[in-house]
Amino acid sequence: MKRICFVICVLVGVATNLFGTDLRDVIAHPQKYENRRITIVGIARVPGYFYLCADKEAATDRHPENALLVRKTGTQPEYREMDRQWVEVTGIMSDKEGGGYELGPTRTTNPGILLQRVRLLRDRPPPRIKDDSVWAVFKNSTSIPLAVEHVAVPKVGGLFFIGPHETEKTQVWKGHVTASLLNGPSNLPLHEQKIGKLVVRGEITLRGLRPGYEYSRELSQERTLYFRIDAHGIEAVPASEGRRWKVR
Questions:
Q1: Is 127 exposed, middle or buried (0-12, 13-18, 19+ CB in 10 A)?
Q2: How many CB atoms are closer than 10 A to CB 114?
Q3: Does residue 13 sit in helix, strand or coil?
Q4: CA–CA separation, 123 vs 244, rounded Å?
Q5: How big is the chain by its Cα radius of gyration, in Å?
Q6: Residue numbers of the chain with a pLDDT score lower than 70
Q7: For residue 5, what is the enclosing H or E element?
Q8: Can you tell me the distance from the alpha carbon of 201 to that of 157, in angstroms, rounded to the nearest whole number?
């Protein structure tokens, strides 16, 4: 009987090492794993805070409530390439401050794991989860620096500064975009100069995106548009041309 018990215990230990810890149990009972080093598998949602979801339903929300918060340090990347992919995460369960690890949006909403290692599981087909974020590359084809403002409704747009013949990649929504002069000494950083006269404007549409782009990876070519800023306006250019631009 003792021998049988020993064999069963060994098999249980092997199974734990092979398959790791169940993510659903960690999310439901985080206190059981406090200060323990665990390895778990789930669907990643990034960028911003890194969430690990147990299934496709939880991962459909970019900021899921029913998920495990993967707490990173300031030196660790955003892991954009892992968004909506199956990943394996290893770390220490903890809700304590310190060590340079972020706490997350609140200390009470999500349990957290201090990230030590993350691995993309390439042998698993990625779940089909929609994400309608769109990115655009703007090229300043003029010889002067510009302040570029994107206005989208109901989304909030953004403002960025771009030097002569430079490019800038940013998230966009359907709306309009303007480019204005900058007033200030040339040795002053662009973002510290005063925004001056409006030069040109254009429209942001999503007609250049292929059907099904919502299922492509974060920052992929399928969800990227290209716009040229010149003296005549801000116009969309074919992806075949824009992909040749040097993006910083």
A1: middle
A2: 20
A3: helix
A4: 32
A5: 23
A6: 1-20, 106-110, 154
A7: helix 2-19
A8: 14
At 117-139, the pLDDT tens digits run 999 999 999 899 998 889 999 99
**DSSP state for residue 99 in the 8-state scheme:** T
Phi and psi at 105, nearest 5°, equal: -60, -40
Domain architecture of the chain: domains with CATH: 20-120 (2.40.50), 134-242 (2.60.40)
- Distances from the Cα of 30 to the Cα of 101, 108, 149, 248, angstroms: 18, 12, 44, 41
DSSP 163-192: -TT-EEEEEE-SEEEEEEEEES-TTS-GGG
Residue 104 CA: distances (Å) to CA of 19, 71, 78, 80, 224? 27, 7, 14, 17, 29
Instruction: Name the pTM for this structure.
Output: 0.72
